[in-house]
Design a protein that fits this description.
The protein is of the alpha/beta class. It is built from 11 helices and 7 strands. It has one domain: Rossmann fold. Strands 3-4-2-5-1-6-7 form a 7-stranded mixed beta sheet, sandwiched between helices. Strand 3 and strand 4 form a beta hairpin. The radius of gyration is 17 Å and the shape is globular.
Length: 262
């Protein structure tokens, strides 16, 4: 049975899509069969992974039920991708029917068992798309940067998680908080890190041991059509993301029964 992970934070600029892309590419590199789902109308995850996002059916059609999932999934460099585009931006108004919180879960139900891992990138907002992602997963990763405003975003996010847990998906848990753009030399970093630990306890989770250091390679790789591992294999952030993928798959709830890859 596949393990599904949602990358989430209502605040933009915290490295959500970069994190999702790095996790997906890292898992695929290790030989795991991986599905990427872009649930952000900006379509950045699909772009990073080399998907066609403008002239092909996307997660929008999947959630509407107008196109079968086998015609929506794209493949690039061994990674299966369900892309997104701007059509999804009207989801809050368009998806108004009873049961709209389960549209994504229902849409991917026919194929979930075909994958080892499913990684979902979400928009920087707490809306029906975010709720759909939470309903379709048991695991959340919250990226943040060492800034005070990033911490405020997480505290507000906890209310949405509690709502989904109480009504739609009682199994949902936060795997951990991932610190991005990490620079231990900055005085503020230490203060924010300590505050993140406090918030993690409130969410009944932890701050991951791996921290992702700043690197221009993270921003440059998508423009070259490559994963960070291909584009800058020796960059500090690349090494950090490799370590994070190892930490992630070693988590108790993320191990695949009877299946080990290298």
């Amino acid at each position: 049975m596949s393990k599904t992970v949602v990358i989430t934070n209502q605040k933009g600029g915290v490295g959500k899509t970069s994190t999702a892309s790095a996790i997906i590419s890292g898992l695929a590199e290790k030989g795991y069969k991986t599905l990427a789902i872009d649930l952000d109308p900006q379509g950045n995850l699909g772009f990073c992974l080399g998907a066609e996002i403008d002239n092909s059916p996307t997660v929008y059609e999947l959630m509407k039920g107008t196109v079968s999932i086998d015609k929506i999934i794209q493949n690039n460099h061994g990674i299966d991708i369900i892309p997104s585009n701007i059509l999804l931006s009207g989801a809050e108004l368009e998806f108004s029917q009873i049961g709209r919180e389960y549209l994504l879960k229902k849409g991917i139900a026919p194929i979930v068992d075909q994958y080892d891992y499913i990684i979902i990138d979400t928009p920087p907002a707490l809306n029906i798309l975010t709720v759909n992602a939470y309903t379709a997963t048991d695991n959340l990763i919250i990226p943040m940067v060492p800034e005070i405003l990033s911490l405020l975003g997480i505290s507000q996010l906890s209310e949405t998680i509690a709502l989904v847990k109480n009504i739609y998906n009682p199994k949902i848990e936060v795997l951990g908080i991932l610190l991005n753009k990490y620079d231990k030399r900055r005085l503020l970093t230490k203060d924010v890190e300590e505050m993140a630990e406090i918030i993690a306890k409130e969410l009944n989770t932890k701050v991951f041991e791996t921290k992702i250091r700043s690197s221009v390679a993270v921003a440059e790789a998508p423009a070259h059509g490559e994963s960070i591992y291909q584009y800058a294999p020796r960059a500090t952030s690349t090494k950090d993301y490799r370590n994070f993928v190892e930490e992630l798959i070693s988590e108790k709830g993320m191990k695949l029964d009877g299946k080990e890859k290298q």
